[in-house]
Structure formats: structure tokens, C-alpha cells
Write a structure and sequence with these properties.
By secondary structure, the protein is an alpha+beta fold. It has 21 helices and twelve strands. The structure holds adenosine-5'-triphosphate (ATP) and magnesium ion (MG).
Length: 468
């Protein structure tokens, strides 16, 4: 065989395989575009599990001649037999048409125009199907990294579906016949407990890097596994999150940590290198762990708030965030002090520095950072246990949160356990007892418990530590 014949032979074989793959590709595309319809008898979603208001919206849209589906998290959660957090409706009516149908309705959003239909405290979100909009138009814009900036092209259900993030989030419950419409294999992934991005993971994460945070949130909440392609893309792309506005990341942080699975979420975010993008200084402080103390406080705070949520109690964002950033504040205080600043200024400056850096990643509203400052600032006041100050501290509006925070520090070795116990007793004591408890020790001089440098690492030695 000549070299020419050999090359020709190779070319023929290559073309054969190329054509083979091409037709296989076309076949799968054609298959995927045709939805699988799960009839009412083939799934477990019943109308009795759906909020009455969501049903009202669905039926009203249908009566007005439009298509109406439940979609997203509510369908996913209903299939697991869980109560959905909220109900999202999608329709072929455009926002203006939706507004005409519902009087109790407001149009919101710039990036995605949506209708909110209000029923007392319940809000049903009604979106119009998004279109695919192949070419860049005014209504659909991407930046040079492939990130979607605006996406207001309306379309049909079979276009809308490809814009959703995960296959299990792209199941549509049709009010017309109570079937579930599945274009992406979401039902099978749901059964197998897999979170799979629709389309190429890297492209989809670049388009909107917040999807990486959503992947972690859903994996933990649902107990699902991320499919390997998704895992690989997150490992590669954690840094894409740097381009996301800090206000949006703050909203996401609340969802990540205040949904009852904060501790596991924290661990998974760290594992994927996402936590350090959200809380850079906290991440650095965790790597200089000292007998496990820093990590413990944060983890204990997350565990406590998960438990509270599990018991139906409320949790506050500022408390948890104060715990996240306590260690960075401590470290900066120590550094400022080492530069010759006095205790008070070292601490105040540290608080300012930590907060101003953190808001670049996750923009807290002002009332949140104020509350954090208060909780941190009150910590030193617990060291004073004589005179009128302890009673005054009890009536401080932020006392309860600051006390809980101090207990957390004590529990994790960052504050004196004996002092924590004193404050617990002091709150329960009657006026006479309180007076006795706050009397200076006989012999004058500074009370043993009267003054303690709390910002130094020395307090970590816990109970029995000598005062300075
Ligand atoms: P939950 O409400 O339980 O947090 P969810 O999946 O309903 O989860 P939402 O933020 O309410 O989340 O979004 C509703 C649906 O909109 C999602 O299920 C998904 O189909 C789509 N969606 C939301 N955010 C994105 C995104 N960033 N990229 C693509 N699709 C998204
Ligand atoms: Mg939702």
C-alpha cells in the first residue's frame, strides 16, 4: 500500500465515524426536543398539595385562554413529597397581559421582567416563557465572558425549558391535564437524585456563575449528588463568581445559610472553593486554625441556627454573619494592637476594616452591619461584673443577641465559661441578688472580674485564666 492509499484509507474510516457520530447527535437532539409527558397517574403531585392561591392563578390564566404551568422548585419539591417554599407559575401570557388579568399584581425586575400576584402575605410569581433569542438583541445581552445581562425575549415552553438551570428544575406541571412535562430527562434525574445542568456545564456556569451556588444549595437541601460534569466545572470556575454584583451575592448567602442546612452547605462550599469567594477573610482565618477554635465558633453558630430553623424558630442574618466574621475581627484587632493601637481603637478599626472589605463580596444592608457591630461591641461589656453596668447591659436592646453570641464564644473556648455562667445566673436573679452579685470584692482595688482584655487570643485559654 502506498502512503497515499494509506492516508485515503484513514480518511475514509474517519469520515465514516464522523458521519456515525453526527447522525447519533441529531438523533439525540430530536429525541430531547420531544417532551416526555407524565400523565397524572404516573406521578405523585396532587392538587391538594398545591397552594390555593397558586391554583387560583393557574386556573385564571387558563380561563383567559393562556397556558399555565407550575415550574421549578415547587414541582421538584412536590415530587419529593415536601412542602415547597413558594410556587412559581409560568405562562405564555406576557407581563402586560398578566397585569390585566390580576388586579392584585405588580410587575417587577429589570433583568427578568416578572409579575408578582399578591394574596395577603403569599406572593405567586408569574413569569412569561423565555425565548431562545439566538441573535443578540436589545432584549437579550451577554457580556464578553458569556454572562447574561438581560434576558427579556419571550417565547414558548420548548424554548423556555433550555434557559433553566438544572434538569430537575425544568419540570412543568400542566394545569390543563395535571401532567408533568419533561424535556430534559429531569424526572429520571429526580428519581436518581442527580443534579445535572441542562447543556454544557461550563457554558451554563459562565452564563450565570450564581448557578454554582444554587448547585450546592440544592444538592444539600435535596440530598442529591452533583453530576460529574457539574462538579468539574465548579472546581474550575469558582472564580467566575467574582464578577457577580455583591448585592446579589448577599441575597444568595441568605438562602445558602438561612434555609436550615447551613452547616452542610458551608462544608460543601468550602470543598468546592466557593466559600472563599464569598467570605475571603473568614476563609483565611480558618486556615490558621488554633486548636480548632476559629472553625468551631462558626460551625457551632451554623449548627445552632439549623437547629432553630428545624424547630420552626426564627434566626437572624446578622447573628450568623457576626459569627462568620468574628475571627477576622479578632485577627485584625491583634494586628492593630501589635502596631501600637490601644485596645479600643484596635478593635474599632478592625471592625471597620473587616466590614468594608466584606461588603465588596457580599453587600450587607446597613441595618445588618450596624447590628453586627453592636453584637461585637457588646462582647467586651460582659467582662464588667461590678457596679451598675451589668444591670444596664441587661436592658440594652441588643443584649439577648450579644449574650447568645458570648455563650457561643464560651462554648467554643473563646470566652470564660465561668463568666458566661455568671451572666446566665445574673439574668435570672431578682433585684437583691443582682445587687449582691455586682458588689465589688472586699479589699477594694480592681475586681477580679471587672476588667478583662477580651480581644486577645489569651482569653482562649478559657476557664480559670488569670485576668490581666
Ligand atoms: P427554591 O425556591 O426552593 O429555592 P427554585 O428552584 O424554585 O428553588 P427559584 O430561585 O425560585 O429556585 O427559581 C425558580 C426556577 O427558575 C428554578 O427552578 C429554575 O428553573 C429557574 N431559575 C432560577 N434561577 C435561575 C438561574 N440563575 N439560571 C437558570 N434558571 C434559573
Ligand atoms: Mg422557587
Amino acid at each position: 500500500m502506498t502512503l497515499f492509499e494509506f492516508n485515503l484509507g484513514i480518511k475514509v474510516i474517519l469520515n465514516f465515524f464522523k458521519n456515525l457520530f453526527k447522525s447519533a447527535e441529531n438523533e439525540t437532539e430530536a429525541e430531547v426536543l420531544e417532551p416526555r409527558i407524565y400523565a397524572r397517574s404516573e406521578h405523585c403531585i396532587s392538587r391538594s398539595q398545591i397552594s390555593e392561591n397558586a391554583l387560583k392563578v393557574l386556573y385564571r390564566l387558563q380561563k383567559s385562554g393562556f397556558e399555565a404551568y407550575l415550574v421549578g422548585g415547587c414541582v421538584r419539591d412536590l415530587l419529593l413529597g415536601r412542602e415547597p417554599k413558594d410556587f412559581d407559575v409560568v405562562t405564555d401570557a406576557d407581563p402586560e397581559q398578566i397585569k390585566k388579568i390580576f388586579r392584585n399584581c405588580r410587575l417587577i425586575g429589570r433583568r427578568f421582567r416578572l409579575a408578582h400576584v399578591y394574596f395577603g402575605r403569599e406572593v405567586i410569581e408569574v413569569a412569561t416563557f423565555r425565548g431562545s433569542g439566538e441573535e443578540q438583541s436589545d432584549e437579550q445581552m451577554q457580556d464578553k465572558e458569556g454572562r447574561l445581562l438581560r434576558d427579556n425575549v419571550y417565547g414558548t415552553i420548548d424554548e423556555d425549558v433550555w434557559r433553566r438551570d438544572f434538569t430537575v428544575n425544568a419540570l412543568y406541571y400542566n394545569i390543563k391535564d395535571f401532567s408533568v412535562v419533561d424535556y430534559t430527562g429531569g424526572m429520571n434525574d429526580h428519581k436518581a437524585g442527580i443534579l445535572r445542568l441542562i447543556g454544557d456545564p461550563e457554558t451554563r456556569f459562565r452564563e450565570d456563575p450564581v448557578r454554582m451556588l444554587r448547585a450546592v444549595r440544592f444538592a444539600v437541601k435535596l440530598g442529591f449528588n452533583l453530576d460529574p460534569g457539574c462538579q468539574k466545572a465548579i472546581h474550575k470556575g469558582a472564580e467566575w463568581l467574582y464578577g457577580i454584583p455583591a448585592a446579589r451575592l448577599y441575597d444568595e448567602v441568605l438562602k445558602l445559610f438561612l434555609s436550615g442546612y447551613g452547616l452542610q452547605t458551608f462544608e460543601m462550599l468550602r470543598q468546592y472553593g466557593l466559600f472563599r469567594v464569598l467570605f475571603p477573610e473568614t476563609e483565611s482565618s480558618l486556615s490558621v486554625e488554633e486548636n480548632g477554635f476559629p472553625k468551631l465558633l462558626l460551625m457551632k453558630a451554623l449548627e445552632n441556627s439549623d437547629n432553630r430553623i428545624g424547630e420552626g424558630k426564627t434566626v437572624t442574618a446578622y447573628f450568623l454573619l457576626a459569627a462568620f466574621l468574628w475571627e477576622p475581627v479578632q485577627m485584625r484587632t491583634a494586628a492593630n494592637r501589635a502596631q501600637g493601637q490601644d485596645d479600643y481603637m484596635a478593635f474599632q478599626n478592625a471592625v471597620g476594616e473587616v466590614l468594608s472589605r466584606q461588603v465588596k463580596s457580599t453587600a450587607f444592608p446597613r441595618h445588618i452591619s450596624l447590628a453586627m457591630r453592636e453584637v461585637w461591641g457588646l462582647q467586651s461589656k460582659f467582662n464588667v461584673r461590678t457596679g451598675a453596668k451589668p444591670a444596664r447591659l441587661l436592658s440594652h436592646p441588643r443584649f439577648r443577641a450579644a449574650y447568645d453570641f458570648m455563650l457561643l464564644r464560651a462554648e467554643t473556648g473563646g470566652a470564660d465559661a465561668e463568666m458566661a455562667d455568671w451572666w446566665t445566673r445574673f439574668q435570672m436573679a431578682d433585684e437583691n441578688e443582682q445587687k449582691k452579685m455586682t458588689q465589688p470584692p472586699r479589699g477594694g482595688g480592681r475586681s477580679k472580674t471587672g476588667r478583662k482584655r477580651m480581644y486577645s487570643k489569651k482569653t482562649r485559654s478559657g476557664p480559670g485564666k488569670k485576668e490581666e
